[in-house]
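Encode chain A's predicted structure.
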Amino acid sequence: MLFNSYAFLFVFLPATYLAFYLLAPRAPLAANLLLALASVAFYGWWDLRYVPLLLASIACNLVAARLLMARRAQALPTGGVLSAAVLANLALLGWFKYADFFATTANTLFGAGLPLQQLVLPLGISFFTFTQIAFLVDIHRGEVDQVSATDYALFVTYFPHLIAGPVLHHREMMPQFASACMHRRDPHLLNVGLAIFAFGLAKKTLLADTAAPYADAVFGAAAAGRALTTGEAWGGALAYTFQLYFDFSGYSDMAIGLSLMFGVRLPQNFASPYKAESIIDFWRRWHMTLSRFLRDYLYIPLGGNRGGPARRHFNLMLTMLLGGLWHGAGWTFVAWGGLHGAYLVANHGWRTVCATRPALGQLFAGWRGRLLTFLAVVIAWVFFRAETFATALAMLEAMAGLSSAVAPATAGENWRRGGLIIALLGALAWFAPNVAQLFRAERPTTAEPQPATSVRRGFRPAWTWWAASGLALAAGILTFHRVSPFLYFQF
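Encoded structure for chain A:
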């Protein structure tokens, strides 16, 4: 079920909200169970075949969690149980997401003749698998000693995050599910949540979906073998850069708003990443919950920055290569992750040099750092979007001015319009405040409130804000006749 659909907005959401708050004041546990069941129904609306898979994953991980807790209570080793449970989770993810990828690679390189399974990727499998792995690891570390089956099921299936994140952490969510604040209906939070949802919906339907045709046309032409002009290639790359940003940040804002209606704050997933002044800064702002997961459950266990610069650089590269593979079963995703790994290594090396020569640090400070970071990110997005290396290289060749293609005479008006759209999206991404800043007084996420100086005037319950929210919601609803899934559904 899509957030941007009539069925969700006019049937599922009001029915779930009303049913939850009819139960919550008198029977909080039953209300949580109802919300978990509603979340499963939300998941099953898209493809009913994978509901048993989701439920089996939850059940098996809950059994593993209880076993880990019991062994810790008896002072018994938990490493073996944890390893088996993590491997089982990764095997499930690997089978559905990577079986055909590895088979195709083996067939191409070695002529192995392995059959392809042609599996349909279950929605959200990467997100609910990572969420559960982190939970098991934290039990092993002694950070969790009890959990109810209902709260655990709700933690995994909670519908605002289930399909495309954010990647949740139990420390942020479990206490909220047990809190009286969640089970006491708050009309103010309902209104604020609906306003945030409206702005996220507008990001998706009015901004991301407007850029999509330009990106699709250029990458499609490159995939078909047509030579591109430099302007076309840059236009397509920039269109995709802003399409992906407003699509995924729009989903994240919608998830934050939906959750806030139920009195639950999700972690912030975006903090204006295209305003970053370095790649290190970018990864503190882009898909923040995934960055946190990769840092806490991969980079640090690998050794982090212990062992010297060479070891740190190796750990960074390996983390980003695996992070790229997490995004998609294709070598272009691995290349994207490898590029960002190389960027991070270079960024850390530059910081080391600047520590002894502070004047050098001013070369890429401020707007120069933002521009360089943004250009590096755009180049990497080409591999992220392209389905083959040939397509990516054709795009990069044209972007570098190495193509001899001439723009067709009919392209002028179309690309002038596209250029205006790209300029508008760029202005919004670079200069407009994000949702956490606009709504800082309401504390819509689990992050600390944004500094008061981050935006001159944020949200306040006044008719101007309600009018803006209403217009955004109405404009988004008018696009519901178009089926437009979110880009991160495929991951």
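Confidence is low (pLDDT under 50) at residues 449-456.
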